[in-house]
Every structure is written in structure tokens, then in C-alpha cells.
Design brief:
354 residues; alpha+beta; OB fold (Dihydrolipoamide Acetyltransferase, E2P); GIY-YIG endonuclease; 3 domains; 5-stranded antiparallel sheet; 4-stranded antiparallel sheet
Length: 354
């Protein structure tokens, strides 16, 4: 407790001294700050009226050397399910008790998890599995152990979609009791499965969306919407990159004052695409065709000078680096090609001839 209080004092002194605050307010009243010290119940837990929810620390003082602190409890004003709105920690100061937590009359995610909805959304809810899973130590994260069904699969009612467990039980023990360490998550509704992506560690927390169940038409519409959002995101990324490059290079002047082009070509034998620059894309196309006749120019766009074109090319290479085959050659999808063409054709390029 003393160590934590000393950290709070140090943080207050670092952020703004009491003396400076008094000077601003023009009075000698003591400064009081409240700090969330420790939660006593987990997010989503069922609590009773009058049950201890958390402790907070009240720090009061006039000068840096004259601090008074006290730890005080907060009790639940009613029965229900707890939603924590603030994390405990060194910087968790607050002024309004109502911003610390909220008591729901029923389970946080009970309505969302209802199979009566047209789209069934499975939120992870700790209370449903807390009797089955018990951590071997404190502050152990839960994570997905295994997906038994995959994106787009048709699943039946009550089928197991995935299993979850505590990370230490999975990593530290080669053999474990599945009835103790692993919990199955089942679907309450038949349909087509969409699995929500997790972080790299597959950690899950109370309220996390694990998966959704659609009927066939709704699933097709959902996937189409996702594809459009992805395409829009890629277009926005291209816009940002190209505009940034042009802005950065607008004051650069090529000594020969020669325009330069960024081009996209295709090798029709393998459908690989080349992203490069040239003062004359048609001439570059002919030189490449002399070695391999199946190479064709798709589109090219003119930029003020070579420096600008070079930076646009560099950033396009960076965007599609995961699809690089070698050098300037990439294995692009139809969406990638369409996005690049759309941006390059936004202003018609006039190609120089040799």
C-alpha cells in the first residue's frame, strides 16, 4: 500500500504540483484526488446489493511534503451484473463514481447471445464457464486452444465450435485433464459460421465476440460487405500513400524537368505483375517484350519528376510486400489490380514516345 501511494504522489507531483494548482485557482483549499486502487470482483460477475466492488485511495494535501491518504471501499448500490469501466493502475484517477462501473439488471451479453436473433453472436461470458475452469495462479489469461470448425462451415445446433483454456494449463503441462482445464464453446443455432479474428496470442476477455452464425443469404451478404470494406480500406491506403508522396516531393524539381511514370505490367504466362517506373512506359514495355513477348502494359501514370515517381513506386512495393515474388514482380489479386488502375486512371496519363 505504501509503495503504491508513493507512486501516486510521484505521479501527481510530476504531472502538476499542488502549489501550481493553488496558484491557478487562487485559493488555499486542499487538493483531493481519487485513485482506483483495486477491483474486488471481475468484469461480468454477478454481484449483490451491498457487496464490496472495489477500493479507491483518496489523496489530499497542500504541499508536496504534506500528503494524507486513505483507502476506502465502494459497495454495489444494487444487485445485478458488473461492468467495469475503468482499469486499476497508477494513473487511474477519477472524479465521478458513476464512471467507475455500471450494474446491469441481467447478464451483459445474455441478449446478444440469444439464438432467437436472426444473426446469432456468441460473446464470451466468464460466468458460464467459471465453475469448469480454475486458473492455477493469479492473472492468467484465457485463450483459444483449438478451432474445431472454420470460416464458412455449416454447423448444427449445439455443435462445438472451439475450446478455450488458461494459457498456463496449455503451455506448462504436456498432459492435462480436459474436464478441468478445457471448456467447450458451442453454438445455440445452426447456420454458416463466421469466426472473429483474435490477436497473435489468441487471448480472450469477457465480452469478446468469438463467432457469429448466419443463414446462407445473410452470410453471403456479410462476406460481400467485408470484401467491399477491405477494398475501400485498400483504396484509402493508396490515396494516403500517393498524396503523401506528392506533398513531400512537390518542391523537388528534376534538373532536366522530365516527367516520370509509374507503371503496372502483366506477364500473361503466369499472371505476375510488375510495378516499376520509367520515362517512357511504352518503350520499357518493348524492351521487356524483346526478352519475353508475353509482357503487356496495363496502365501508367505521369508524375512531376523521377523523385516523386520513385517514392510512389517504393510505397506501392511496401503495400504489396507480402505478395512479392521477386524484385518488382508481384502476385496481385483482381482487387489489387483494380485498385491500382483506379488510382492511376484518375488523371489520364500521356505517355512519352521515344
Amino acid at each position: 500500500m505504501k509503495t503504491i501511494i508513493s507512486k501516486i504522489k510521484a505521479f501527481i507531483n510530476k504531472s502538476e504540483s499542488v502549489e501550481s494548482i493553488n496558484n491557478k485557482t487562487g485559493n488555499d483549499f486542499p487538493i483531493v484526488k481519487k485513485y482506483l486502487y483495486k477491483w474486488s470482483v471481475k468484469n461480468g460477475d454477478k454481484v449483490k446489493k451491498g457487496q464490496l466492488i472495489c477500493y479507491y485511495v483518496e489523496v489530499e494535501g497542500f504541499e508536496k511534503s504534506e500528503w494524507h491518504s486513505s483507502k476506502k471501499p465502494i459497495y454495489s448500490p444494487e444487485s445485478g451484473y458488473l461492468e467495469r469501466k475503468k482499469k486499476q493502475g497508477q494513473k487511474s484517477f477519477f472524479t465521478d463514481f458513476n464512471k467507475l462501473f455500471y450494474i446491469h439488471k441481467e447478464s451483459l451479453y445474455k441478449k446478444e447471445n440469444s439464438p432467437k436473433k436472426s444473426v446469432y453472436t456468441c460473446h464470451f461470458y466468464w460466468e458460464n464457464i467459471r465453475q469448469k475452469l480454475k486458473p492455477r495462479s493469479r492473472n492468467v489469461p484465457l485463450c483459444v486452444v483449438e478451432h474445431l470448425k472454420f470460416e464458412g462451415d455449416f454447423v448444427e445446433e449445439n455443435e462445438v465450435i472451439l475450446t478455450i483454456g488458461f494459457e498456463e494449463a496449455i503451455n506448462e503441462f504436456e498432459e492435462y485433464d480436459e474436464t478441468y482445464d478445457i471448456a467447450e464453446i458451442r453454438t445455440l443455432k445452426p447456420g454458416y459460421l463466421h469466426i472473429e479474428p483474435l490477436d497473435n496470442k489468441n487471448w480472450i476477455f469477457d465480452g469478446h465476440v468469438l463467432f457469429q452464425i448466419f443463414d446462407k443469404q445473410e452470410y453471403e451478404e456479410f462476406i460481400l460487405k467485408k470484401e467491399k470494406e477491405k477494398q475501400k480500406s485498400e483504396l484509402n491506403k493508396l490515396d494516403i500513400v500517393i498524396n503523401k508522396v506528392i506533398k513531400t516531393n512537390k518542391n523537388l524539381i528534376d534538373f532536366e524537368n522530365t516527367a516520370c511514370y509509374v507503371y503496372l505490367m502483366i506477364d500473361t504466362t503466369n499472371n505476375f505483375h510488375k510495378i516499376g517506373i520509367s520515362n517512357s512506359p511504352e518503350y520499357r514495355e518493348k524492351t521487356l517484350q524483346s526478352e519475353k513477348p508475353t509482357i503487356e502494359l496495363i496502365v501508367a501514370k505521369e508524375y512531376l519528376n523521377r523523385n516523386t515517381a520513385l517514392n510512389v513506386e517504393k510505397n506501392l512495393h511496401k503495400i504489396y510486400k507480402k505478395k512479392r515474388i521477386r524484385g518488382e514482380w508481384f502476385k496481385l489479386s483482381e482487387n489489387d489490380i483494380r485498385n491500382i488502375k483506379e488510382k492511376m486512371e484518375s488523371k489520364k496519363a500521356t505517355h512519352n514516345t521515344v
